[in-house]
Design brief:
By secondary structure, the protein is an alpha/beta fold. The protein has helices spanning 2-12, 19-37, 39-43, 46-50, 99-115, 136-150, 169-183, 203-223, 239-250, 273-280, 289-294, 332-340, 356-364, 372-375, 378-392, 398-422, 429-448, and strands at residues 55-64, 70-81, 87-93, 122-127, 159-162, 231-235, 254-260, 263-266, 299-302, 320-323, 345-347, 368-370. The strands form 2 sheets. A 7-stranded mixed β-sheet has the order 9-8-7-6-10-11-12, sandwiched between helices. A 5-stranded mixed β-sheet has the order 1-2-4-3-5. The structure holds glutamic acid (GLU).
C-alpha cells in the first residue's frame, strides 16, 4: 500500500521540488508495520488523506523598494492538516521557496506538532522573497504587502503562522502590525511576536534550547552521558543554531563549528557567540568570513573548498553533531566522516537536514540519531504556549516557560523511544517519532469522520 501511495504521489508531483517526496517516503516507510496491524487505516484511507494538503494557497505580493522600483513575489500558505488543532507552522522567506519545499515543511510540521502532544495542526508558508541586502524599510514594506493577502486565510483559531528561515521577531512584528490595521483584531494570530505585544518569553531561544534539552535527555537515557566537556559541531548561524550553541555552552560543551550559506568557521577554542552575533544579529547578514579575521586561531572554509559531496562542519572530530541550518546539509560522506571521528549522536535542529542514506548509515553504525520533528519541536511548542498566553491574556515568567519546555522535550524523547521499543525498532528514533506522531493524528482523523 505504501508503495502504491508513493507512486501516485510521484506522478502528481513531477513538477515540484523532491523534498516533499523525500519526507513522505521516510514517514510512510516507518508506518508499514502499524498500517498492516490496524485495518481501520486502510478503510478510512488515512495515508492517502494524510499526504494530501487540505489547501495550497498561492498569492501575489507586490511591493515597492527604496528606489521606487516595483517588485512581484509569490506568497504561499499550505494548510496541510488540522485534525489536532488550528493549522500551525512557520513562514519562510528565501529565494528557494516554492510549493514543493513548503509541502515538505508543512507535512513534517503535522508530525512534529503531533509529537508535542499539544492541540496544533500542520501548516507552512512563505515567499520566494530574498531578505538578503534589503533595508529595514524594504523588509517592512514587503511584510505589509504579504499580510495584505495572507490575513484573509488565517485566524487565532484557524491558522497561526510563525517564523522560520528569514522570518524572525522583526518580520513577525511588521506582519502583525499590518494584520491589526486591517482587521482591528488584537489576538494571537501569529506567534513569535515581540514581547511588547503578546510574544512569549523564551520563544526566540525555544527551538535551539529545546534541541539541547532533547539531546541531553537522549544521551543520559541511552548512554548515561552528559554534554559537559564534550566537543560539538553545529551548522548554521541563524536563530536555531545560535541558541543551540548558547545552550550547549551553558551545559559545558565546547562548540567548535558554525556556518552560513557561504562557508564554515572552525574555532578550536570554542565559537565566540558575541562575534557571530555582531556579524549576523539584528538582521545584519555579513559573511562569517569576518569571524576568522577577528578571532585568531579560527579557520574559515569557503563553500567552494568543502570536501567533495560534503559539508566542512562535519569533518572535524566531535562527540555530537547538530545540523541546524537547512534541509539536506549532511550527506552520506559527512556521516561516514562523523563515524570515523567517533561521533556518538546526531541531533537535528533544522528540518530534515540529514539525507536519507546518511541516516541509514548513522543508524547502522549505532550513532544515536534524532529527527528534527522530535528534537526541534521546542520552537513550535513555545509558540503554542504563546497562543495559550494570548488566549487567556496572561504573561508567563521566563522560569515557567523554560520549565515547561524542558518537561515537554523530555516527554517527546520518552514518547519516541518507548514507541520505537513497542514496535520492535529500539533506538530507531525516526520510526519511533513517525509512528507516535502518526497514531495521534490518525486517531483524530478517524474520530472526526471523512
Ligand atoms: N518554523 C518553526 C518550525 O519549523 C516554528 C513553527 C511555529 O512556531 O509555528 O517548527
Amino acid at each position: 500500500m505504501v508503495e502504491r501511495i508513493l507512486a501516485n504521489l510521484k506522478q502528481s508531483n513531477v513538477n515540484t521540488d523532491n523534498t516533499f517526496l523525500q519526507a513522505v517516503s521516510e514517514v510512510l516507510s516507518s508506518l508499514e508495520p502499524i498500517v498492516r496491524s490496524d485495518p481501520r487505516y486502510e478503510r478510512y484511507a488515512i495515508l492517502e488523506r494524510l499526504v494530501t494538503p487540505d489547501r495550497v494557497i498561492q498569492f501575489k505580493v507586490q511591493w515597492v523598494d527604496d528606489q521606487s522600483r516595483v517588485h512581484i513575489n509569490n506568497g504561499y500558505r499550505i494548510q496541510f492538516n488540522n485534525s489536532l488543532g488550528p493549522y500551525k507552522g512557520g513562514l519562510r522567506f528565501h529565494p528557494s521557496v516554492d510549493t514543493g519545499i513548503l509541502k515538505f515543511l508543512a507535512f513534517e510540521q503535522i508530525f512534529k506538532n503531533s509529537l508535542t502532544g499539544l492541540p496544533i495542526g500542520g501548516a507552512k508558508g512563505g515567499s520566494d522573497f530574498d531578505p538578503k541586502g534589503k533595508s529595514d524599510f524594504e523588509i517592512m514594506k514587503f511584510c505589509r504587502a504579504f499580510m495584505r493577502e495572507l490575513y484573509q486565510y488565517i485566524g487565532a483559531r484557524v491558522d497561526v503562522p510563525a517564523g522560520d528561515i528569514g522570518v524572525g521577531a522583526r518580520e513577525i512584528g511588521y506582519l502583525y502590525g499590518e494584520y491589526k490595521r486591517i482587521t482591528r483584531n488584537y489576538d494571537g494570530v501569529l506567534s513569535g511576536k515581540p514581547y511588547e505585544f503578546g510574544g512569549s518569553l523564551m520563544r526566540p531561544q525555544a527551538t535551539g534550547y529545546g534541541v539541547v534539552y532533547f539531546a541531553a535527555e537522549m544521551l543520559s537515557q541511552e548512554l548515561q552521558e552528559t554534554l559537559e566537556g564534550k566537543t560539538c559541531c553545529v551548522s548554521g548561524a541563524g536563530n536555531v543554531a545560535l541558541h543551540t550553541i548558547e545552550k550547549l555552552q551553558q551545559m559545558g560543551a565546547l562548540v567548535v563549528t558554525c556556518s552560513d550559506s557561504e562557508g564554515t568557521i572552525y574555532d578550536p577554542r570554542g565559537i565566540d557567540l558575541c562575534v557571530v552575533r555582531e556579524l549576523k544579529g539584528n538582521g545584519a547578514r555579513a559573511s562569517l568570513e569576518g569571524y576568522a579575521t577577528r578571532v585568531p586561531g579560527s579557520v574559515y572554509t569557503a563553500k567552494a573548498d568543502y570536501p567533495a559531496g560534503g559539508h566542512a562542519a562535519w569533518h572535524y572530530p566531535c562527540f555530537a553533531a547538530f545540523p541546524c541550518a537547512t534541509q539536506n546539509e549532511l550527506s552520506r560522506t559527512d556521516a561516514a566522516k562523523l563515524i570515523e571521528n567517533g561521533c556518538v549522536a546526531v541531533v537535528e535542529g533544522a528540518n530534515m537536514p540529514t539525507e536519507p542514506d546518511a541516516i541509514e548509515l548513522l543508524q547502522r553504525e549505532g550513532v544515536l540519531f534524532s529527527p528534527g520533528k522530535a528534537s526541534n519541536a521546542g520552537g513550535v511548542a513555545v509558540s503554542e504556549f504563546e497562543m495559550s498566553q494570548n488566549a487567556s491574556m496572561e504573561k508567563w515568567d521566563y522560569d515557567k516557560v523554560d520549565r515547561k519546555l524542558q518537561e515537554l522535550m523530555a516527554q517527546i524523547y520518552k514518547r519516541v523511544s518507548l514507541t520505537a521499543k513497542e514496535y520492535g525498532c529500539e533506538r530507531n528514533f525516526v520510526d519511533g517519532a513517525n509512528i507516535a506522531a502518526f497514531k495521534r493524528v490518525a486517531e483524530a482523523m478517524i474520530l472526526e469522520g471523512v
